[in-house]
Amino acid sequence: MKSNYYAVLSRMKNIYRWGLMRNTRRETLSEHSFEVALVAHALAVINNERLGGDIDPNLCATAALFHDTSEIITGDMPTPVKYHNPEIRDAYKKVEKIAENKLIDMLPEDMKPTFAALYEPEEYVSKIIKAADRISALIKCIEETEMGNKEFKEAKRSIEKSVKDLKMPEADIFLDEFIDGFSLTLDEQN
After folding, report:
1. Which of 109, 128, 112 is nearest to 58 (CA)?
2. Is 75 left (phi over 0), alpha (psi -120 to 50) or beta?
3. pLDDT by position in tens, the chain (length 190)
4. Residue among 96, 118, 166, 119 at smallest CA distance from 138
């Protein structure tokens, strides 16, 4: 069976995030997914090495790569719209699920179970991806505010609070140890 699954996924580079806000640099869905995968991997490693957990960092990273692929079909719904009220949020979740199923249906039968599992990982892996997703958004806000874009000032404050509100020690550790580096210049990072 011929499949267009990966060709469709490659279109993630054509979908831009933060559509309601002025950006100094546009961020694609591909860039975002890659960054979420890096952070999710780090959160799982922190969980295992510092907190005595037993989470597969590779599964976290892989599931994170696919966490927003439904947006190839749905587009990127801005957070203030998506979470405006429970009815919109719940309706959008249904639309996302339909889009995920459409993508899975593009795969050969023998590959479908593996990918279906990535779209619905176990609860704590999902929680790690959610935290990584928010941290990625925080990183974008830091980058924008460091470039003088005041448009992201309130989003930065709100997203940082939302990460802390998750009450995930691994996310707190990531913020404590790694987030400041995103405010530094290249020379300062080295």
Report:
1. 128
2. left
3. 899 999 999 999 999 999 889 999 999 999 999 999 999 999 999 999 999 999 999 999 999 999 999 999 987 777 776 767 888 888 888 999 999 999 999 999 999 999 999 999 999 999 999 999 999 999 999 999 999 999 999 999 999 999 999 999 999 999 999 999 999 999 999 9
4. 166
Question: How buried is 178 (Cβ within 10 angstroms: 0-12 exposed, 13-18 middle, 19+ buried)?
Answer: middle
pTM: predicted TM-score of the whole model, two decimal places: 0.94
CB 35 within 8 A of CB 136: yes
The angle at the Cα of 79, spanning 73 to 83, to the nearest 5 degrees, equals: 100
